[in-house]
Amino acid sequence: MNPPRLHRPSKTGVARIVIVDDHPMVRERLQEVIQGQPDLEVCGEAEDRHQAMAVIQAERPDLVIIDLSLKNSHGLDLIKDLHVSAPDLAILVVSMHDESLHAERVIRAGARGYITKQEATRNIMLAIRTVLAGEVYLSEKTARRLASRVARKPDTAAISLLSTLSDRELRVIEFIGQGFNTRRIAELLKVGVPTVETYRARLKEKLCLRDASELLQFAIRHAGALER
């Protein structure tokens, strides 16, 4: 099967890629493999969240490859930041961590694919091209698990409760389900932290939840309903 065609190539017809990984050897190896492709090029690299944001803002790549373990930071936080600041940017996670534990979380945060570093080079290249083509790349096992979860009958009681929320309350619980803390939600909504705390208290009351833990579990469990 031929690899997918690039969905959003640069003006030169070459997709530009930034690599974010805290191991120089990994960055060098990925760069070597990518630079060997006529339609791909590495335009920047970074080892932590701060460097990555600066490089991505300066280079405006078509794709960012991110490891979950970064220097002084976590890849998931970077994915969330990029999903807010550059929602159309393609993100692929290439990590040593178990896909079954992290793939769903990074997809919900805004990434378009997940592949482990243990995979063969040809599979990593397929993942890169799949994500660049605007599609989602996951292993068959993880894709089947997620498809099965989506196909389950929706929780009508939860949907009924969600329908009682205001638009702003829905946004708050959506951000909670994505893992954002109160201060970050306040920044995204451009309101004060006390305002978000009020929303959180109101959500617990309306949804009949006892504490912040139950609110977080509810938000994650019903993320699909929030996206519809």
Strand content: 5-15%
Largest sheet: 5 strands, parallel
Residue windows where pLDDT falls under 50 for at least 5 positions:
1-11
CA distance, first residue to last residue? 33 Å
Count of DSSP-assigned helices: 12
CATH architecture of the largest domain: 3-Layer(aba) Sandwich
Which structural class best describes the helix and strand composition? alpha/beta
Q: Number of folding domains? A: 2
Outline the fold blueprint.
Elements: E1 15-20, H1 24-35, E2 40-46, H2 49-59, E3 63-66, E4 69-70, E5 73-74, H3 75-85, E6 90-95, H4 99-109, E7 113-116, H5 121-132, H6 140-151, H7 156-162, H8 167-177, H9 182-189, H10 193-206, H11 212-221, H12 223-227
Parallel strand pairs: 1-2, 1-3, 3-6, 6-7
Antiparallel strand pairs: 4-5
Can you put this structure into words, describing what you see?
The structure is a single chain. The protein has 228 residues and is of the alpha/beta class. The chain has 2 domains: 15-149, Response regulator (Rossmann fold, 3-Layer(aba) Sandwich), CATH 3.40.50; 156-227, Winged helix-like DNA-binding domain superfamily/Winged helix DNA-binding domain (Arc Repressor Mutant, subunit A, Orthogonal Bundle), CATH 1.10.10.10. It is 54% helix and 14% strand. The protein contains 12 helices and 7 strands. It has helices at 24-35, 49-59, 75-85, 99-109, 121-132, 140-151, 156-162, 167-177, 182-189, 193-206, 212-221, 223-227, and strands at 15-20, 40-46, 63-66, 69-70, 73-74, 90-95, 113-116. Strands 2-1-3-6-7 form a 5-stranded parallel beta sheet, with helices on both faces. A hairpin with a 2-residue loop joins strand 4 and strand 5 (73-74). Helix 8 crosses helix 10, helix 8 (167-177) packs across helix 11 and helix 9 (182-189) packs across helix 10. The longest helix is centred in the C-terminal third of the chain and has 14 residues, at 193-206. The chain is elongated, with a radius of gyration of 19 Å. The two termini are 33 Å apart. The model is unreliable at 1-11 (pLDDT under 50).
